[in-house]
Amino acid sequence: MAKLTQDELLAQFEEMTLIELAGFVKAFEEKFDVTAAAAAPVVVAGGAAGGAAEAVEEKDEFDVILTAAGDKKIQVIKVVRELTSLGLKEAKDLVDGTPKPVLEKVAKDAAEKAAEALKGAGASVEVK
Fold this sequence. Notes:
This protein is an alpha+beta fold.
């Protein structure tokens, strides 16, 4: 078997649905006895004149939560499929099971664009 490059692996992952990718990650964790946990944020404390001031870490990862599908459920399912690359059944199940996260740990601009697209389709959305 030929060794795949990093770009070839990423191309394969792009074709997977989120459910397939989650299954892969779980199998990878079991096979190599590792966990794909996010690194803990580092809090930096510095001295100020007369006291200590903590640096406030700005949030850079956001979750887009679908709270209600609204009247145009089919349009919302289409938008969910575009945003997540889920299959029709998975997207329908996600929309039917609201409130559910559509996107997790994405950049602020991506979260805002996704929220606007979902709202445009008639859904109620929350960005956390």
